[in-house]
Amino acid sequence: MEAAQFAPGQTLFLPSPHAAYEPCVVESCTGMGASAILKVHTLAQPTKSLEIPPDQLCHVCEADPLSLKGAPDMVKFANLTEGALLHNLRVRYGKDQIYSAAGAILLSVNPFKPLGGVYTKEAMAECQVKNKGRGGV
């Protein structure tokens, strides 16, 4: 049995011209490195198979399961990659969760609309409690 760089069923992030990185699932993979033959399907189009060109393989990265769900703190990712970070922010933006953390670093994405529940007294108090352990207020 030949070694493979990625396992069937594994979720990866594939560079995408319209979404920066798009989650995809490995259908098959043979070989390693630049000589690998990788076939995937995106989560958006599970019936359409794609073969990744050899020159694009270096841009494919493993998907952290927490990033697929939209985790509030990205320091908990086992594999913090550009794809995981951008996808996580996109998922949270879609849920109107515009604030995300990477440890003590706060990231914010402009929602381009009013978000009524973000700045309530309850939400601010919850944020203060969460940030006490990080040296926050």
What is the topology?
Blueprint (H helix, E strand, L loop, with lengths): L10 E6 L3 E11 L6 E6 L6 E4 L8 E2 L2 H5 L12 H13 L4 E4 L2 E4 L12 H11 L6
Describe the structure.
- This protein has 137 residues and is of the alpha+beta class.
- The protein contains three helices and seven strands.
- The protein has helices spanning 65-69, 82-94, 121-131, and strands at 11-16, 20-30, 37-42, 49-52, 61-62, 99-102, 105-108.
- The strands form two sheets. Strands 4-3-2-1-5 form a five-stranded antiparallel beta sheet.
- A hairpin with a 6-residue loop joins strand 3 (37-42) and strand 4 (49-52).
- The longest helix has 13 residues, at 82-94.
- The protein is elongated.
- The mean pLDDT is 87.
In a few lines, what is going on in this structure?
With 137 residues, the chain is α+β, with helices and mostly antiparallel strands. The chain is built from three helices and seven strands; from the N terminus they run E-E-E-E-E-H-H-E-E-H. The protein is elongated and about 55 Å long.
